[in-house]
Amino acid sequence: MISRGGSNVIRFAFALVATLVLSSNAYSDDLLDWLQQEVMERSPAAETSSFSSENATLLTLESGETEMYPKISPNGKHLLVVSGKHNKNRVTRRLLENGDPLNVVTDDQRAFRSAAWHGPEHATFLSDRGGDLGVWQMGANGQGAVRRLARLTGEFVEMIVLDSGELIGVRLLPTSGLVRSGNVKMINQLDFKNWKIAGNETRLLHIGKNGEESSLTAGVNPSISPDGKSIVFSMQTGHSWHLFMVDVDGSNLIQLTNSNSIDVQPTWSPNGKWIAFTSNRGEAGAKIKKENWDVWMIRRDGQHLTRLTSDAAHDGAPAIGANGRVYYHSDRKVDRVAKKGMHAAGGTSGFHIWSLPLPAMVE
Q1: What is the CATH number of domain 45-357?
Q2: pLDDT tens sequence across 24-47
Q3: pTM higher than the cut 0.90
């Protein structure tokens, strides 16, 4: 959290960020990095703590399969998981209790980045079925009719349907030329770094029920607070990525994290007090290892930065359950005991879903 003494630097930095954030030239990146360092040097270090990940429990393990991007249903009973095997990906529904697969929701390739819960019984996702891009809804149990909720103009990669029927989406803005269908296919494949879309910038848009669009800010990986009033998301500032929070109407933009790190894939706790995210940051003062990805948490006021996992694997895409556990995907090694307990035969490399108990300080 930034102190009052650093407020002048913050105001100046945000003024320049607003002007430069859509610029892709090297000068802008260097200037933004310098501003970020100035803010850090003039502000007290955020309180940082660590939490042991030795109690991590393997939740999903299918031989030769990858399971990524867990999303918890509003009633806390199920997960949406993006699963891949033999180069065939699909969105599946699983039991939160033990990770058992229940059914395939969709194999639409655009759903791999955009699938989300809409109430406890339905899933929404992007699809160009029917000839043009739109937001679609179907039963999470894979049954019933598939219904289009909205038609879209332009290229989107992430979409959230609010309870009001309004939309929060991430639109691609190509830095040169047009977004081609081949590129769309590529960016919708399973990828740990789902915040990086080569050759494109991203904008958060609010789309009303009448289709009217309002540009909110640059950014990616949006997540709506439980009360539906705030969006936490990641935005690039120079060569780093940080978490920001903004109201759904685009007002009250607040920066939550700093440091020369990449902070992405944020998600809310059920009570709206905490945010979990993926980061390559290290402990305070430690050198950042670019490919050391772990799960972190921070309060929505920017305080109590807490590291949940600490290992050499790629840990990311967290989801916080009301049962006091955090779920995430990881490519950490599966030992023999865990493999035997999951009754898996064959290869077990790649990403799978794991879970951890939350630290006691998280309410």
Answers
A1: 2.120.10.30
A2: 444 444 444 444 444 443 443 456
A3: no
